[in-house]
Structures are given as C-alpha cells and as structure tokens.
Amino acid sequence: MSIIKLHDKYFKTYLSEAKIATAIKSLAKQIESDCKNEIPLFIGILNGSFMFAADFIRQYKSDCEISFVKLASYQGTSSTGEIKQLVGINENLEGRTVVILEDIIDTGNTLQEIYAIFKDKKVKQLKIATLFFKPDVFKKELPIDYVGISIPDKFIVGYGLDYNGLGRNYKSIYQLTTQPKMKNIVLFGPPGAGKGTQAELLKNKYNLIHISTGDVFRYNIKNKTKLGMLAKSYMDKGDLVPDEVTIDMLKTEVEKNKDAKGFIFDGFPRTQSQAIALDKFLEEKGETISGMVALEVPENLLVERLLERGKTSGRPDDQDENKIRNRFNEYNTKTAVLKEFYQNQNKYFGVNGVGSIEEITQRLSEVIDTF
Ligand code: AMP
C-alpha cells in the first residue's frame, strides 16, 4: 500500500501477505498429495528462499525433512570461467525424493546449475517448486513441477528477495516503479508542538503546499459550511472528527493542487485508517509519503504553550485545560501509533522540538533535505 525506497530505487506494493500465504498453502497441498507414502527432503536455495521455506513447511502437514543449500560461485582456473557449487548438502540423497524450494525462477540459469549438480546424486526423483515464476523470460527446456504465482518480467523485492541486500525483511512483495516526483511530508507531533509555525516556514523554503486539516475545518466553521457544522461539535470538545469526513476533505484539498511539487500534511493523518487511506490515495498517483518528520516535545511544556496560545488564538480548544488534556488523550490513544506505522516503512524521523523557531526549522530541514 505504499512506495518504498531501497538504495536508489523505488518499489510499489505488488503482492500482499495474504496472496503469498494462499499460494504457499496451495503448493503445500499439491506436493503433499504427490508425495504420499514418502518423506520428501525439501531443499531451500539460500538466501532468497528462507522465508518461503519457513512458511511452506508450516503448511506441509505430513512428515518431511528440510535442509538449505547455497549456490556459491568461484572463479575456476579453466577458461570456462565461473563454476557453481552447492554448499551445505550433508544428507545422503541416494534414493530420496528431493523437492527444491526456490523463491523465484526467471531466466532459469540457477535452475540449470541445480539440475546439473543433482544429476549424479542418485536421487529417486528431483522436483522443483518455485514461489514465483516469470514465464516471459524463462528460456530453458527444464521441468518446473510446482509454481506458486506467475508474474510479469518486473524486478521484485520483499519476502526474502532483495535488491543489493536490502528488502528481504518486508512481509509483502514490492515491484520496481518509477521515482515519485513529489516531496510529501507528514509533519507530526502532539498538539502545540509547533507544527503550524514550522509548516509555514517550510512550505516557502521547499515550495510545497501546506494542508492543515485543523485550519481547513476552522475555515469551514467560520464560513458555516455543512462540513464546518459537522466538524464543530467534535472539535469544540477536542475529539477527532470522524475518519470518513476527514479523509474526503483531505483528498479534495490535494486534488485542488494538481501541479504541486509536494505537500506538507499538518494534522493529518491522525489515525491509522487515515494513514492507510493516504498511502493508497498517493500510490494511485504514483506518489508516496517521503517521510514523517516528528516534533518531539515533552507534554508538560505543551500544556503551557497551548494555554498561552489560547489567550490570543481565539481557539476554544486552546482555552480550557480539560479540552487540552482530552486532545492529548486523543493523540496518545489514536495518533501516537502512527510513529510505528511510519517506522515500519523506514519513514519516521524524530526531531527535537524544544528550542528557538530557527533552530527547529534547521533541524527539520536537515531531515527534509534527504528526501
Ligand atoms: P489542529 O489544528 O491540528 O490542532 O486540529 C484541531 C482539531 O481539528 C482536532 O482536535 C480535531 O478535532 C480536528 N482535526 C484536525 N485534523 C484532524 C484529523 N486528521 N482527523 C480528525 N480530526 C481532526
């Protein structure tokens, strides 16, 4: 549901955990029914297949064995160049039913090496099971007995597969995509952290559109629109406005600025479902959140700041300590989880929010410059 960056490349969500799990279940079932009365030896080809192999054998309900090998290449002394060797086979394979577990088969070069290596091991039968298969690029005349999911010839990462070492730890599969053009920043922090002040400065510095959902709501309340009337009762108490209302409003604001170089989202997302909706919405445009930049300020300092602001801001939710406490409660119970949400995508950047306005802009800029 989002775009990730690994080294210099961008990848978008392609296959969900659920789709992968269904494919693995079905592979396990097929192999189990073909291996009745046998104890197959599964051999996972490292590194990519470790996750597939682990999930696969948990779905395989009859007796079986598993082992792992690595196909290592070393420079041969002969003119033929690279020679491949399997590292890690200790079992006696004679007379066994061996099922190779591959994460992905594309050209079939690795598969060919495997066939060549197993040729003289006197196995009873050698079968190949691959989680992913690229039929468009497969060039060999070799049998592949079991295929989980056939995919087009696009580079994928995640679920054990890597791009130059990175990406193996993602639970779903991501596909190579073009670089997003926008800088989209979620400016995060509890009420009173200084998001509004900083957003004003940053939008000029980076030529971005600043969307403050709180400001949009207040504008609508002032102009007595339908949206304003709806939001007012929640806002006055310091409660969050319902997600559907807020998400629709946010989308409308983004659509108003089609040529923007990017957005600073201030006060949005504030719940997990808003964050999910935002990811999905941006992904449909080939865009993504570049990062969440969070102003970290201790709560006691914030209450003081808000009461002080309430003297001049005219905001009813700034003037009463109970309402302020309720806003913190909303923040801690519904919004603070977003830190983890973005951390899981490697997109969380905490910034010390105590200091002068200029100092804090400088700290934020150091992070934003890396996006
Ligand atoms: P703010 O100006 O960001 O402090 O927001 C003021 C109030 O507007 C909040 O206490 C909520 O009642 C409402 N609000 C602003 N943004 C959102 C949001 N993303 N989701 C739900 N309610 C929001």
Would you write up a description of this structure?
- The chain is an alpha/beta fold and 371 residues long.
- The chain folds into 2 domains: 3-177, Rossmann fold; 183-368, P-loop containing nucleotide triphosphate hydrolases (Rossmann fold), CATH 3.40.50.
- 39% of the residues lie in helices and 24% in strands.
- It has helices at residues 17-34, 50-59, 109-118, 195-206, 213-222, 226-237, 243-255, 272-284, 299-313, 321-335, 338-343, 357-368; strands spanning 3-6, 9-15, 41-46, 65-75, 82-87, 97-105, 125-133, 146-150, 156-157, 173-177, 183-188, 209-212, 262-266, 291-296, 348-352.
- The strands form 3 sheets. The protein has a 6-stranded mixed sheet with strand order 5-4-3-6-7-8, sandwiched between helices. A 5-stranded parallel sheet has the order 12-13-11-14-15, with helices on both faces.
- Strand 6 (97-105), helix 3 and strand 7 (125-133) form a beta-alpha-beta unit.
- Helix 7 packs parallel to helix 8 and helix 9 packs across helix 10.
- The longest helix has 18 residues, at 17-34.
- It starts with a strand and ends with a helix.
- The mean pLDDT is 92.
- The structure holds adenosine monophosphate.
- The site of adenosine monophosphate has 17 residues, from helix 5 and helix 6.
